[in-house]
């Protein structure tokens, strides 16, 4: 597949306990199906060849002979197929029986990985039948081949050196020192787990959390295949719980008690990049004693089925309210500390009737409530000029009144006109000077008001505007504390919507009106009572720019990969030429406007992306964009 994506499969097939031939046939069929679907790695459950619940039948040589014959048959079925398969089987080695994962590709057994931690409590009696893995790496004769035997095996794809795979089995994941920790440190980007975890109430949620956390902790892909229908129900039941996770995100999860094949795509390129960028100190540690085994992978350009959110900065429905409350609390706590430290009395905020200034005012409102300060010490200022509409001005005034803050209305038309005379600028020249003069006069008013009343100017600009440089340098670009600086536009909308619902009444009504207002800087003269500028017509849709920003900065994806993901995600909304057009705009502006980000005011980081030079983003202001534009083309 393209851009580092690898299609993988967790397969739970129906089995019959000790009916090795039946099980083998189901496994072979599933391998064929997953190969046709483009899978590069297919993982089956623990001891699936014979069944985990064989009990004392594991000591019967007739069963073990049949298992080896099955491994040979399964191996032969993969001839000509570049797919890495892991099956679970009991394996005899030097007179000792091990619970193993057997790795197979293109007709060959590549390695055998014995289980390290054998549960011997509750319903589990594995130490009755099996010996735990030892650290030494050895060899075993299996299906007529000399095969590496041990836990320290990494399988490396010849076609993609970032596709590196290692295995652990069931209880190994639950142990305090899982083998997968060493596997990841030794370079494995994907961990597979062959499991037979019995089902009891609440265990599925705990199991899912374990997989998520392990994939996050190790910055890896994790494929968990659980045994299901067909295992003995003498005392226990098995639900076929399959999970595919990547770096803390569950990509796919099967329904309990439904056997089948679960697919997704793991981004091994992203895993390698994140490890290199965020956790190089962890993964720089050398781990000795591993043997690397090469394999050939299915490189067919299959369809990407994985779902990427249209708004990656916005939390999903399951924890939406909790996250909204958390972000607003972080913003207000950051501002609260600034007031306590400086001893400032007033908050001074310019209110335009738009989203960003509304959010900044709501954060200040929360802060003053928390500090038990008089809300009248929040000085909200609307400064109408040539492009201000009655709609936005009325919204601004209504919001101030509803929240009970001090309201000031200061027209800046005369000041701007005098300034035009001073700098010899024609009033009908609507270029950048005409627009920026208004923004800078507004900032001057706010700064001087703050000085006059022992106040702090609260910045209103958001992360998306900062990324695109959509702010006037030393105008709205500047403040004494910026509460929205790490909040992208798509999240600003949702935060305002959340607060509207929480406050209710008149506040909700005016905030809903603000949410429905077209985004505009309102710096050009009003056209028949309507806005003359629409921001997204000029610089592009914020929903696209936030998508670009997230994957460019959070993960460092190439423009070509971002374009690939955007076309996949927005295929029903934007065509590819539109996406490419705005992606070019994003990169051109992102590079050319870095100088504004090099001197941004203080402001709290609330999410995984920040463009402050003091936290996440350090970039020379004169870096050249050509390589990134070439990648788009």
Q: How would the blueprint of this fold be written?
A:
Layout lengths: L4 E8 L7 H17 L4 E3 L17 H17 L6 E10 L2 E10 L2 E7 L23 E5 L2 E5 L3 E5 L6 E6 L1 H4 L4 H7 L4 E6 L7 H15 L3 E6 L16 E4 L2 E5 L6 E8 H11 L1 H4 L7 E5 L24 H23 L3 E5 L4 H16 L7 E5 L7 H14 L2 E4 L3 H10 L9 H21 L2 E5 L3 H6 L12 E2 L6 H15 L1 H11 L19 H5 L2 H13 L4 H11 L6 H17 L1 H4 L28 H7 L1
Parallel strand pairs: 1-2, 2-3, 8-15, 9-10, 10-11, 16-17, 16-19, 17-18, 19-20
Antiparallel strand pairs: 1-14, 3-4, 4-5, 6-7, 8-9, 11-12, 12-13
**Number of separate helices:** 21
Number of strands: 20
Helix content: 25-40%
Helix and strand content put the structural class at: alpha/beta
Task: Identify the strand order in the major beta sheet.
Answer: 13-12-11-10-9-8-15
Residue fraction in strands: 15-25%
Characterise this structure:
About 40% of the residues lie in helices and about 20% in strands. It is α/β, with parallel strands linked by helices and about 625 residues long. The strands form four sheets. The chain has a seven-stranded mixed sheet. The longest helix has 23 residues.
Concise overview:
A seven-stranded mixed β-sheet has the order 13-12-11-10-9-8-15. It has a six-stranded mixed β-sheet with strand order 5-4-3-2-1-14. By secondary structure, the protein is of the alpha/beta class.
Key traits:
633 residues, alpha/beta, 6-stranded mixed β-sheet, 18% strand, elongated
């Amino acid at each position: 597949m393209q851009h580092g994506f690898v299609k993988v499969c967790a397969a739970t097939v129906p089995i019959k306990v000790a009916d090795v031939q039946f099980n083998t046939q189901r496994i072979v069929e599933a391998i064929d199906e997953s190969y046709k679907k483009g899978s590069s790695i297919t993982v089956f459950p623990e001891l699936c060849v014979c069944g985990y619940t064989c009990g004392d039948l594991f000591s019967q040589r007739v069963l073990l002979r049949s298992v080896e014959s099955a491994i040979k048959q399964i191996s032969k079925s993969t001839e000509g197929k570049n797919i890495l398969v892991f099956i679970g089987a009991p394996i005899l080695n030097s007179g000792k029986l091990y619970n193993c994962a057997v790795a197979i590709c293109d007709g060959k057994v590549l390695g055998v990985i014995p289980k390290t931690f054998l549960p011997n409590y509750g319903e589990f009696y594995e130490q009755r039948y099996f010996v735990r893995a030892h650290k030494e790496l050895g060899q075993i004769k299996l299906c007529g081949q000399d095969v590496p035997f041990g836990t320290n095996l990494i399988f490396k794809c010849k076609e993609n050196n970032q596709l590196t795979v290692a295995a652990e089995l069931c209880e190994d994941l639950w142990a305090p020192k899982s083998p997968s920790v060493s596997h990841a440190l030794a370079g494995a980007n994907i961990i597979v787990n062959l499991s037979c975890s019995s089902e009891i109430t609440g265990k599925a949620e705990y199991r899912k959390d374990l997989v998520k956390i392990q994939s996050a902790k190790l910055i890896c892909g994790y494929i968990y295949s659980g045994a299901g229908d067909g295992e003995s129900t003498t005392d226990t039941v098995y639900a076929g719980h399959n999970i595919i996770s990547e770096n803390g995100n569950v990509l796919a999860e099967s329904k309990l008690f439904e056997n089948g094949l679960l697919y997704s795509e793991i981004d091994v390129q992203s895993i390698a990049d994140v490890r290199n960028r965020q956790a190089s100190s962890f993964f720089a540690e050398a781990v000795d004693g591993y043997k690397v085994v090469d394999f050939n992978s299915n490189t067919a350009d299959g369809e990407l089925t994985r779902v990427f959110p249209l708004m990656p900065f916005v939390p999903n429905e399951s924890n939406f309210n909790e996250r909204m409350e958390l972000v607003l609390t972080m913003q207000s706590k950051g501002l609260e500390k600034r007031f306590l430290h400086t001893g400032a009395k007033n908050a001074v905020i310019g209110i335009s009737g738009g989203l960003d200034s509304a959010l900044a005012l709501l954060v200040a409102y929360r802060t003053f409530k928390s500090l038990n300060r008089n809300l009248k010490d929040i000085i909200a200022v609307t400064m109408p000029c040539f492009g201000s509409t009655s709609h936005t001005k009325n919204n601004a005034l209504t919001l101030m009144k509803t929240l009970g803050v001090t309201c000031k209305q200061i027209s800046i038309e005369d000041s701007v006109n005098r300034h035009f005379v001073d700098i010899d600028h024609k009033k009908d020249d609507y270029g950048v000077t005409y627009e920026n003069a208004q923004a800078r006069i507004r900032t001057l008013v706010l700064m001087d008001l703050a000085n006059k009343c022992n106040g702090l100017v609260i910045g209103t600009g958001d992360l998306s505007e900062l990324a695109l440089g959509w702010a006037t340098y030393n105008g709205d670009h500047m403040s004494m504390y910026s509460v929205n600086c790490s909040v992208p536009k798509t999240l600003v909308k949702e935060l305002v919507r959340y607060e509207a619902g929480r406050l209710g009444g008149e506040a909700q009504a005016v905030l809903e009106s603000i949410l429905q207002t077209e985004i505009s800087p309102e710096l050009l003269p009003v056209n028949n009572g309507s806005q003359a500028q629409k921001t997204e017509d000029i610089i592009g849709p914020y929903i696209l720019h936030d998508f670009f920003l997230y994957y460019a900065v959070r993960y460092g994806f190439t423009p070509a990969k971002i374009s690939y993901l955007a076309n996949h995600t927005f295929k029903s909304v934007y065509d590819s030429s539109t996406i490419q057009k705005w992606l070019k705009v994003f990169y051109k502006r992102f590079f050319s406007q870095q100088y504004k980000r090099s001197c941004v005011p203080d402001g709290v980081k609330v999410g995984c992306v920040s463009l402050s030079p003091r936290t996440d983003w350090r970039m020379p202001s004169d870096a050249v964009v050509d390589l990134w534009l070439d990648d788009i083309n």
